[in-house]
Design brief:
The protein has 264 residues and is α/β, with parallel strands linked by helices. An 8-stranded mixed sheet has the order 1-2-4-3-5-6-7-8. A hairpin with a 2-residue loop joins strand 1 and strand 2.
Length: 264
């Protein structure tokens, strides 16, 4: 549907990936990569403000939301598929914003295809496995084995809202469209994606990967993050040129605000 403020907004499937495009076609491009268990719709609260000055592309990673299932789901394979999407769309050097584990895909994109990353922003992206804080018991049961596959189809919107709010540390509005898209993701794909993220982070901490690639990100953390130790964001300061900023009183899901806009 056309939006007079931004020029256009539309949904497309490109290279098997669902992408929401908004903002003026001649504006600087901005790619938004969602985190674990989320979809492009998780960025809904921020897109209108961002699209006022940028061409925004928010994607469902393969296996998530409206994107096709496309194993394997290891992080390098995910990054390659995102690169194929950008190549097909003719997008070069966008700002790339990765939220939570979406930051791993964004980082690997910068490693493998630095020509496709103009600037890198990591939102609530844990730097190493030991930075993760204990999860709520209900979340562990729903996401883990053996009960996860049985409970996954039984998730209600109420359960999903409570799960999201457990990591926000502040009141947020959870868009209905986001919940609908989250329910499209199948447990088997979700579990494989999560296993891929865990393997990627265990293999090498993110600050080491970024330093080796010469990528200097803006790192944004909520200082009340209940998922990742907020102090762990300081580890990114070891990356030459990196900048670390905190959002006072915010948790793991700053996408309900517009922190990316402060990046430029």
């Amino acid at each position: 549907m056309s939006d007079p403020r931004t020029g256009f907004r539309r949904d497309r499937i490109v290279a098997g990936i669902h992408v929401v495009v908004d903002g003026p076609s001649d504006a600087p491009p901005l790619l938004l990569v969602h985190g674990s268990g989320a979809t492009a719709a998780s960025w809904s609260p921020t897109i209108p403000a961002l699209a006022a000055s940028r061409r925004v592309l928010a994607i469902d990673l393969p296996g998530c939301g409206r994107s096709a299932s496309a194993p394997p789901y290891d992080v390098p394979a995910q990054a390659d598929r995102v690169a194929a999407l950008l190549d097909e769309l003719g997008v070069t050097a966008p700002w790339v914003v990765g939220h939570s584990s979406g930051g791993y895909v964004a980082t690997e994109l910068a490693v493998r295809r630095p020509d496709l990353v103009g600037s890198l922003v990591l939102l609530s992206t844990g730097p190493a496995p030991d930075a993760m804080l204990p999860e709520a018991a209900a979340v562990r049961v729903l996401m883990g084995r053996p009960l996860g596959p049985l409970l996954w189809p039984l998730r209600t919107t109420g359960m999903l809202r409570r799960g999201i709010r457990s990591v926000t540390a502040h009141p947020v509005v959870v868009p209905d469209g986001f919940l609908a898209d989250v329910r499209r993701t199948r447990y088997r794909a979700f579990r494989r994606i999560m296993d891929g993220y865990a393997a990627y982070l265990a293999e090498r901490p993110l600050p080491d990967r970024l330093s080796a690639a010469g990528a200097a990100p803006l790192v944004v953390f909520g200082d009340a993050d209940p998922r990742w130790d907020p102090a762990s964001a300081r580890r990114y300061e070891a990356v030459p040129g990196a900048r670390v900023e905190y959002l006072a009183g915010w948790g793991t899901w700053p996408c309900s605000r517009t922190p990316a806009a402060s990046a430029g």
